[in-house]
């Protein structure tokens, strides 16, 4: 009788029955087989000791002839139990290894399906969101580049006026010398961002001319 919830033989079953169930199908968990193997190992040691004692009793010179047949049957039964348990103890590790592989495969399969579901959701979100995001970014960066050129033209005019900082420098609260040497601050200009085309063709940003 197998506990379907915990996937282990019912604790009310005799050990021999639980061993037999362990070799029928692939229902037992790693935990169930680990516990069973520990129990079988312990029982095997006790069975070996009981077998030796039964043999000693069978060969004892004090054994009455009338009791010889019973002692022989008892010794044979003890030897059979010892051998059966020893064989189970030698084969159960293989079942345990197979259960570990089975559970690992099940975990990976579950993770595979979860990753697939997450991927499909992301794909749908990208498809519905990226084109508009890219258009918004390209429009914003195009206007920023145009405004930067407009400010630069004023600065080159030679008229003494208050220097104008770029919209990006103000928005990002960048250092006063940032426009002159952005690399010195380690803060890259947003104009250096790249927005790939959503399907095929040239990137949406930067412009193909590379000038902005």
Terminal-residue CA separation: 77 Å
Number of strands: 2
SSE arrangement, N to C: EEHHHHH
The largest sheet has its strands arranged as 1-2
> What is Rg?
40 Å
Helices and strands: which structural class?
A: mainly alpha
Low-confidence stretches: none
Shape: rod-shaped
Largest sheet: 2 strands, antiparallel
DSSP summary: helix tally: 5
Strand content is under 5%
Oligomer designation: single chain
Helix content: 55-70%
The pLDDT mean sits at 90
Structure description:
This protein is mostly helical. The chain has a domain at 2-119. The protein is built from five helices and two strands. It has helices spanning 15-22, 30-59, 68-156, 167-172, 182-185; strands at residues 2-3, 8-9. Helix 2 (30-59) packs antiparallel against helix 3 (68-156). The longest helix has 89 residues, at 68-156. The chain is rod-shaped, with a radius of gyration of 40 Å. 13% of the residues are buried.
Characteristic terms for this protein:
rod-shaped, mainly alpha, 65% helix, 2 strands
Topology diagram in text:
Elements: E1 2-3, E2 8-9, H1 15-22, H2 30-59, H3 68-156, H4 167-172, H5 182-185
Helix pairs in contact: 2-3
Short précis:
The protein has 212 residues and is mainly α. The protein is 65% helix and 2% strand.
């Amino acid at each position: 009788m197998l506990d379907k919830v915990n996937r282990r033989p019912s604790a009310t079953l005799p050990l021999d029955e639980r061993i037999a169930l362990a070799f029928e199908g692939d229902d037992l968990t790693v935990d169930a087989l680990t516990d069973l193997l520990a129990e079988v190992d312990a029982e095997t040691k006790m069975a070996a000791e009981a077998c030796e004692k039964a043999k000693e009793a069978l060969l004892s010179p004090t054994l009455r002839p009338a009791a010889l047949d019973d002692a022989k049957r008892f010794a044979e039964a003890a030897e059979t139990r010892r051998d059966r348990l020893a064989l189970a103890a030698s084969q159960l590790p293989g079942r345990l290894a197979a259960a570990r592989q089975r559970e690992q495969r099940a975990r990976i399969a579950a993770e595979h399906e979860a990753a697939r579901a997450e991927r499909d959701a992301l794909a749908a979100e990208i498809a519905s969101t990226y084109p508009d995001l890219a258009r918004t970014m390209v429009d914003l960066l195009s206007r920023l580049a145009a405004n930067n050129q407009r400010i630069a033209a004023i600065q080159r005019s030679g008229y003494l006026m208050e220097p104008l900082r770029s919209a990006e420098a103000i928005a990002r609260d960048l250092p006063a010398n940032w426009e002159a040497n952005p690399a010195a601050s380690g803060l890259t200009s947003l104009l250096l961002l790249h927005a790939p085309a959503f399907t095929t063709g040239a990137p949406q940003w930067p412009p193909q001319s590379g000038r902005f």
